[in-house]
Amino acid sequence: MSVWDELGGQPAVVEQLKQAVNGDRLSHAWLFTGPPGSGRSNAAKAFAAALNCEREDVAERGCGQCPACLTILGETHPDVTFVRTEKVTITIDESRELVAKAGNRPATGRWRSIVVEDADRMAERTTNVLLKAIEEPTPRTIWMLCAPSPADVLVTIRSRCRPVGLRLPPAADVAALLIKRDGVDPALAQTVARAAQSHIGIARRLAKDPNARERRTATVRLPLALRGITAAVLMAEELTSIATDEAQSSNDERDAQEKIALLASLGAPETGTLPPAMRAQLKQLEDDQKRRAKRSITDSLDRTLTDLLSFYRDVLMVQLGHGVELVNVELSAEIEEFANNSSPEKTLARMDAINTTRRRIVTSNVAPLLAVEAMAASLI
């Protein structure tokens, strides 16, 4: 598969990046924007791979098969740095390290690339550290910043970047990608692509994890049993439990792989007590994983509330009679009955309550359970 195949449903973006690889208006700084699930970080990674692809024919670069492409896609290439934070923000010290790294010439490839996947998670002071490096770039270095929208990045930064706008691909394109790349059954691929609302990463997880599909189904069915304040409290507990289980499921596998990789890189013995230096590095990894777990629960709860929001979205579509395909087709009968017993105004108020709770959980230090309990009470 080519590196561009990951960007199914984004032909304009693929063409724009291919032209840059071919030498047409190759900028020193790029800003990839698009909603969650649009594939902005995947686009940046594919672009970095194509720039360093080992194919002689420029038109064939981005083959996805040469050592350069494979190592960049696997995030192990020495000339491509990927930055993503497991904390609320990227720190100023981390930004200074990036600037220092950007000053080095490529070790093996044509270009050194710095891919910042969470550019929207930088405070103004932190972003200003990057400004001069982006404004006066080192030769052979390309910055690639990713954010949900241009407004999430300081104007002084985005004015110096070439924009790449992505959108959510059609569900049919996401399903086709899952079938081609991951060998997912066509019927299942269509179901999870629709359930994930075209979010490629979420669709892949739903396709590969039956437990994840069950947790999502449990989430979207919760409003059907919402009768009174007691049910609202139980619903809040169930939502937070589902989000915690989802986050824990994702973290366990990732944590185990990271531990194995670290021990292998240190040359740790298979049995017996680890030397003190190795134990210290292992302790550092475990501390980092604990900090990441806290954020992953917040992110998982946000995704769980997005799934809940899809139920009311479907209810609103039925109430307005738009004839738009439902996200939760398997609940079409229940959704139609629910819609007949409510009004569009009430449904919009409920959707607004969910979105308000999502913002509070992500941007403030509110206790998730209390925030979700207040939300559930407003959904009655």
Describe this structure in words.
59% of the residues lie in helices and 7% in strands. By secondary structure, the protein is of the alpha/beta class. Strands 2-3-4-1-5 form a 5-stranded parallel β-sheet, with helices on one face. Helix 5 (124-135) links the parallel strand 3 and strand 4 (141-147). The termini are far apart. The model has no long low-confidence stretch (mean pLDDT 87).
Please report the number of helical segments. 15
Average pLDDT across residues? 87
C-alpha Rg (nearest Å): 23 Å
Q: What is the spatial order of strands in the main beta sheet?
A: 2-3-4-1-5
The percentage helix is: 55-70%
**E-strand count:** 5
Which spans of ≥5 residues are poorly predicted at pLDDT below 50? none
**What structural class is derived from the secondary structure elements?**
alpha/beta
- Report the span from N to C terminus: 49 Å
Write down the overall geometry.
Answer: globular
Strand coverage percent:
5-15%
Order of helices and strands: HEHHEHEHEHEHHHHHHHHH
The biggest sheet amounts to: 5 strands, parallel
